[in-house]
Amino acid sequence: MEAAAGVARIRAGYLSSKEQFHAYLKAESGSQEINQVDGEQESTSNDQNEPPAKRLKLDSGDQVGKEASQGEVEEGAREKEEPRERKRARGQNKNRPCMKPTHYEKDRLCPSVTQEHAENCRFGSQCRFLHDVGEYMAVKPADLGDSCVLFQTFGKCIYGVTCRFAKTHLGEDYRNLVNEDLVKRWEGKSQVRNNLSKELQQQLRKKKVCFEKANKYLCHLAKAGSKGGNKATSGSAGEKGVTNCTASRSSPESVGLKPHGEKAQDLQVPTEGGDAPKPVAPQSPCPTSESDNSAVKTIGSVTDEDIVKLRPCEKKKLDIQGKLYLAPLTTCGNLPFRRICKRFGADVTCGEMAVCTNLLQGQSSEWALLKRHCTEDLFGVQLEGAFPDTMTRCAELLNQNIEVDFVDINVGCPIDLVYKKGGGCALMTRSNKFEQIVRGMNSVLDVPLTVKIRTGVQEKVNLAHKVIPNLREWGASMVTLHGRSREQRYTKVADWEYIAECAKIASPMPLFGNGDILSYEDANQAMQTGVSGIMIAR
């Protein structure tokens, strides 16, 4: 059959006659009838099958109970015969098979043998580990090297025969050797300091920590704000996570003394009978106990040690002129990274940015950022916050519980989460809060206070040259300037000409420059701009 012009030709497989088409329809109708008959038979059989008899109570007769039990057995056998579709495991899938390999436990040495007290195995006769050192050494993989770092450093390897470098510290009968000289040298010393104790963590969580110096400063701010007719500038005095505890009785305010020649005022309590009121010394709402850890405890008249404060010139000096400063790198500058940089020549190290509110709540993850290794001889911590109450209390908390050489305030963080809450770069535009934070932290710290800032918030509007003279007046010991604005973040080139101008303005206060130090040539060129030192960052 030839197709007309412009019409595609039909394949031979799709061509059929009229008789073939009618035969196909008859075959289809016959199959549908057969399916209908089968469906009716199934429905009738389902109707005839009665539901299984329920199990009656025992008092209805033993025979009834037997019949019910027989029905249940028959139903269970019928369910077993019928194949069930396997359900897909979803959710937590707690019934999944345990895939943990157990073959390695057969050749594993018992921990009691490693710790050299095999007779006190806590598993007893049910222990599935090896207790024969010779059998273990026969199946143990070959050592990875010839020198064990733990044995060479501390004089003893705590892993014993299980160490993959055990050749250097194994003697006869596979006994672990000990270098007594190195062990005595490290006795009583800890490699990592500034750990959070459980006792302090519980006190922070229960809000039982007393911030004597911080609360005294915040009360002074509240009085200054009320006298000026403004609201109290100390933020939320009842901040969650801290207690509103006033100074102890040995402080000058507790006995009615005020600095700068102000007269002391006693509380006037009227007596019975209309007599003249008698002066009563004000008492602190925070009860004093025998375990009070105040620096000086006196009875009677006030001594000079009670009222004389530490002068700024008596504070510990931060001598890092011309030294290499490793920047506090968030999510990167952890303790192992700082140890490596210290080995490569870094002079000053600083911990990652820690949020003051999290520290006051006793979060272990935040306190881990404050850890200090024994090789870090010049070490500081960096705090981030937006209000003077939390920052001042956090500074006092760290001053009492950790060992640092300086505390740094983060005023350069460009992250939106920090900036929108008023912290980081936002403090450069909040001069009142910025001043209260710096003055408050400086009043409660015994170590120098440093500040890290940027050129400003907007790209072409520099603010650092206005902020630096104020920081010197407020009591900051050093300023670090990153030559980029918040809008630039970490893009474009750092403005070292502006850093050089700010270094002249900051004098005699030291100023460190930061930004685009990628090689030795960059560092040498940056030192010629007049800065006191350079900070190496990303």
UniProtKB/TrEMBL annotation:
Residue span(s) of domain C3H1-type: 104-134
Entry keyword annotation includes Flavoprotein: yes
Domain of life: Eukaryota
GO biological process: mRNA processing
Cofactors required: FMN
Composition bias type Polar residues, residue spans: 243-253, 286-295
CDD domains reported in the protein's UniProt record: DUS_like_FMN
Gene Ontology molecular function: flavin adenine dinucleotide binding; mRNA dihydrouridine synthase activity; RNA binding; tRNA-dihydrouridine47 synthase activity; zinc ion binding
EC number: 1.3.1.-
Record region (Disordered): 30-104, 224-295
Xref: SUPFAM superfamilies: FMN-linked oxidoreductases
Family: Belongs to the dus family. Dus3 subfamily.
Name assigned to this protein: tRNA-dihydrouridine(47) synthase [NAD(P)(+)]
